[in-house]
Amino acid sequence: MAHNQKGAGAPLLAVSAGLAILAYSLGLRAEKGYMILVAKDTQEHPIQGVQLGVEGIGSIRLTGSDGKVRIRLGSAAEEGDSVSLILQSSPKGKDYVILSPWNRRLRIPKFDEKPDNFVEVILVERGDRAMLESGKALRSITLQINSTNAKDLTSEQTAQPDPRTALNIVAKQYGLAPEDVDKAVKWWASTSTDEFDRGLAAYYARRFQEAGDEFRSSLKEI
User: How many other β-carbons are positioned within 10 Å of the β-carbon of residue 95?
Assistant: First the structure.
């Protein structure tokens, strides 16, 4: 009799585990007023234990073992609204920084329950030179440098802006040496076959006509 009770325990444990997984999944379902973020590294591995949130109207919570976190938004938040991402803290011994979205801005996805209604957040460890070997990382870094330089070029200052200023700012943000970032971007430019990436690299090098041509070509492929 005792043997039968012991044998019955296995199915009960399986059911309990299934219910626990179901409850966790439901807790991370899409719902009006909430948004799901998924933290990953450049190799698509989930990152656990980072505090993520959005500025002003949202909560800040820790990511789980699958990199997911469910963020509460303000009552007035609507699908498609733009919000600013916050990385509040990293796990002990880690110092993560946001790589993507490169400008920390993201749009709230649809609230209905679909598998792709989440926002992917790519993180890298500050000072990790391995990011300079990732096309995904170099694309984001170059976007940031170009964006800063574009603001300087359109400002009302009389002196021509020094393009190295933006390079220094972004390199410092990631804990990297500016010369290493510059070398990596140039290597990436010489190896990439993607027209949009080549456009970014040409803009970085201040070859604006070439950049425009590459961007126009990339749009034709869409």
Answer: 13
